[in-house]
Write a structure and sequence with these properties.
- Two copies of one chain form a homodimer.
- Chain A is an alpha/beta fold.
- Chain A has one domain: Carbon-nitrogen hydrolase (Nitrilase/N-carbamoyl-D-aminoacid amidohydrolase, 4-Layer Sandwich).
- Helices cover 26% and strands 28% of the residues of chain A.
- Chain A has seven helices and 15 strands.
- The first copy, chain A, has a six-stranded mixed sheet with strand order 5-4-3-2-1-15.
- In chain A, a hairpin with a 2-residue loop joins strand 3 and strand 4.
- The longest helix of chain A has 22 residues.
- Chain A is globular, with a radius of gyration of 18 Å.
- Chain A starts with a strand and ends in a 15-residue tail after the last helix.
- The interface between A and B is large, with 53 and 53 residues.
Chain lengths: 296, 296
Amino acid sequence: MTQRFLKVAAIQHACTHDRDKNLANTIQGIRSAAKQGAKLVVLQELHTSLYFCQTQNPNLFDLAEPIPGPTTDQLSTIADELNVVITASIFERRAAGLYHNTAVVLDTTKGIVGLYRKMHIPDDPGFHEKYYFTPGDPGFRPINTTIGRLGVQVCWDQWFPESARLMTLAGAELLVYPTAIGWDPADTHEEQQRQLDAWLTIQRAHAIANGIPVISCNRSGFEADSSGNTQGIQFWGNSFIAGSQGEIIKTAPADQCAVLIAKINLSRTEQVRRIWPYLRDRRIDAYNGLSSRYLD
Amino acid sequence: MTQRFLKVAAIQHACTHDRDKNLANTIQGIRSAAKQGAKLVVLQELHTSLYFCQTQNPNLFDLAEPIPGPTTDQLSTIADELNVVITASIFERRAAGLYHNTAVVLDTTKGIVGLYRKMHIPDDPGFHEKYYFTPGDPGFRPINTTIGRLGVQVCWDQWFPESARLMTLAGAELLVYPTAIGWDPADTHEEQQRQLDAWLTIQRAHAIANGIPVISCNRSGFEADSSGNTQGIQFWGNSFIAGSQGEIIKTAPADQCAVLIAKINLSRTEQVRRIWPYLRDRRIDAYNGLSSRYLD
């Protein structure tokens, strides 16, 4: 069997109030990754801004931009120049009063080749996403690129085995999760470690259940809650790249910027699915209940 | 919030050709677990026999028994005597030519309170289960017991997030996996470790995705392949008990018998689901594809 390798990168960094500075940081990371041979570069969720969802403030919708728009224009130019595929994360203004948390794929010379609008929207103290983001409507469709078929999702989606499976059934060759997740400083160290471990474990499990690699890109750094309602968020970094048996290939630190690079073997999917052929044995005659809210 | 604790046990051991000796081993483990206060005792898959599916042999259907039958009778008596709930694993003869891989729940004084017939059936070199076991038909229904609502599945099921989710939606308070999984001695050490790690990871992920504890009970010991087609199976033990954030509470060794006991906190489900409320945010409007074989 011909081996098919792909060098991938995740760009992890802290953000500030300054959009241009954030984007310059991101682009510096993309350049470094490309220089090291990466062909796919995954950016963290909402990489041009602070994680603004800690509070509800109508003025913050000013941060949104159309697609195509300034950020996708700028990143398209970079993708073209460096001959890479970039998954960017945009606070999308689709229409007045209609905003999404959107991942956009920019493919070498081709510009925008597809987008994914975050389907599962969280809403918790410090994460007021249902206020800002309309739930996505294109569903779970992988995006074709010159380097493969990408199952791009966003952050909270990473906790749902359903969407990882749907991307797989639709032909995704790898799963990509831009994300912004961190610790509540009010939690104990033990609770913080359980949460980080759960986050790593469930995403690795998507790789295992589906026999495809996972790239997860998180931000680092502390961001205060301007409302003072919470103690802010210590984003936990730990971006990682896992192979198609869920094995961790590379992990970034918790508290530093990182240009995380790994070579993944896309041919392993064929091998691991021959050993453990879950797609053959799914009981599709018995899964109807998955479309129910609860079976009481 | 009132805390609700439950002491649970998994009985891991090697098996021989001698049914009575295997069952005596199991019962010794149950007695030990009960003495230490366990209220739920989980037995490994097909605990009365060798893992006979390494070869296809029509005579081996002689190992099957009805439910109720000799093994459930014997274990019912023990459950009654020790005032415990036992999940047993039976090669079930349901009718001539109709056999199942079945988990049975025996509840204190009540005898059999429910059964689960393995739904996902593997079939691979050394694991000829599609030959022996008809796919289960009762679907993924938890079983009510005096100590809680058990989401009992069997072995290969443990790789499918779909069934863990369906058990959860139907009200399961914990997931139980009797299993028989091991290493192919022909594999490299690295491959063996990746497989074990994948097995632990995906089951822990079911706990995480659903906010409920997991008990997984595997056999230990080497069993030869009488057909000589493979190098046999080194069952990898590693039975474990994980809490509702997927955190490992206790693990058994790879190569020894073990009466694994842990106290789990069932009230944690309420707490972790308030922090990470996946059931609130599932996109049931977009999950229809899960009932498809493939979305091409």
